[in-house]
Design goal:
- The chain has 401 residues and is α/β, with parallel strands linked by helices.
- It has a domain of 131 residues: Thiolase/Chalcone synthase (Peroxisomal Thiolase, Chain A, domain 1, 3-Layer(aba) Sandwich).
- Helix content is 40%, strand content 18%.
- It has 15 helices and eleven strands.
- An eleven-stranded mixed beta sheet has the order 3-2-4-5-1-6-11-10-7-9-8, sandwiched between helices.
- It is globular, with a radius of gyration of 20 Å.
Length: 401
Amino acid sequence: MQNRPVIVAVGRTKFGEHYGKEPEKLIEEAWLAASNECNLERKDLDTCYMADYFLPITNKLGLEEGFLSELTELHVPMEVTRSFSAALKTACHAIQAGVYSIALVGGIEKMTDRWYKIRDDLMLLEDPWSYYAGGTPEANHELLLRAYIKEHGITGDALDVLSDALAKIAVKNHAYGAKNPYAQYQRKISVETVQNSRKSANKALGLFDYAPITDGATALILTSEAVAKKLGVCFVSVYGYNSATDYLNYSTRDELSHFVAAQFAMQGVLKNSCLNVWDIPIWEVYDQSTMMEMVSLEDLGYCKVGSAWRSISESCLDSKGCYEIDGKELYVNMNGGLKADGNPIGATGGAQIHELFRQLTGKADQRQVLIDGVLPKYGGSLEFEGFGTKAYVNILGRDLT
């Protein structure tokens, strides 16, 4: 990749309910955290890209670009996207093209400011046809589970193994969340807790299978490799990024037991980055439900289609916090994932990048992953817009020079 974009700093807020904080306070906190890491100031920024889904609705804001201009007291080009990965992709294009030298990429969401309507908003965003049919934000996840069971002929005792595997995903992510000072939920749970929540709801997936409603902000500073070296700062390179899209209406898709958009995005990014699947042993994936994390292991190419549940059930038997697949270790959602870290959807992808940056630079504290005793070279993130409607895959790599 020519003129490779690199991340020189990341910042974020704690995720959770921040009803008493204005959105500008959250994004300012995330920006200052990133700025303090690399000693860059607002005047050094050439452009800003910010992501949010609902800020004009939840906080009655008009043009978010104007909001960001007031906050930074800058008049540089600014653009708003939905997801953080979309903002990052746009910024990467600008850096590669040489149009800008230093870019701020941020994400913000204040979902609890609209508690009474946010679930309707989410369902309309993900699948309006299902919403008007009476569906909830959880409905498509249960339909995905049913489609998976039918597609792969899972019956009898195997259904219990599948259920147990999904519960173990939640347990793993909460264990990581307990080590993450920014996470919304910093407590461990048990398989029994997950199973009991399902029994209480009389559903295949229960309270502890889903990500929560969350407020929060994230930010990173992007530049080119040449500029980063002049600044003399530690950096992580963006080795590849790609996206793909599927139908908005989940029920009309050709494939109901997987996310085709994730498969195509992953195939494209591997081709463009000249990497293979197992070059990337750490991932942050979009576990809006435990079912989505399990399916992602297959869509990204780590497990054969229809087999991820067995790999999870067999490998999550200790405190190592990783999946063991074909004799190899795969670490997923070390920040606790959306499940425990939280899901302020405009900022969620930034939390994924924040964790990968920390892991690749050896600054992940208790969550630090070592591969054969050394820091991982590459890490990946998978972020969705909607219910698998659009998928973004980003591959980061640490400076190996």
